[in-house]
Amino acid sequence: MNSPETFTPEPIKVTDNAIAKVKELIEDEGNDALKLRVYVTGGGCSGFQYGFAFEESCAEDDAQISREGVTVVIDAMSYPYLIGAELDYEEGLQGSRFKVQNPNASSTCGCGSSFSI
Fold first, then answer.
1. How far apart are the C-alpha atoms of 17 and 46, rounded to whole Å?
2. pTM metric for this prediction
3. Which of 5, 81, 97, 102 would give a disulfide with 85, using CB separation of 3.0 to 4.6 Å?
4. How far is CA 11 from CA 54, 96, 105, in A?
5. Where does 1-117 show beta strands of DSSP type E?
6. In 6-101, where does DSSP find H-type helix?
């Protein structure tokens, strides 16, 4: 008897723009083992802030989203804060940046890099 597969939704949706930029940055570094880590840490003007870093390795309890050869990694502590969020990359008059649209945030700062729950 086979046990039914459980479906775990991806904690964060990664847009095509974000995938393309991560691919570009990884190609620039010349290291296909790099993964983009998205995390939440205390601080910022609203209480929490988003962070982004490239890493080669993952922890055993990291959530991983893989698409088109790109892997986005989220640590277990940040995971609950990012469920249902969307990671995008935008270029505009204020510069270029990764941006998180987070339905869990009750308020965000003007620059969008920090939030409160």
1. 26
2. 0.79
3. 102
4. 19, 24, 15
5. 12-14, 35-42, 48-55, 63-67, 70-74, 85-92, 95-101, 107-108, 114-116
6. 16-29, 79-82
pLDDT in tens, the chain (117 residues): 444 554 455 678 999 999 999 999 999 999 999 999 999 888 766 577 889 999 999 999 999 999 999 999 999 999 988 999 999 999 887 788 888 888 877 655 555 554 545
With a CB cutoff of 8 Å and minimum separation 6, the contacts of 51 are 37, 38, 39, 40, 41
Phi, psi of 46 (to 5 degrees): -110, 0
Of 79, 51, 52, 49, which Cα lies nearest the Cα of 63?
A: 79
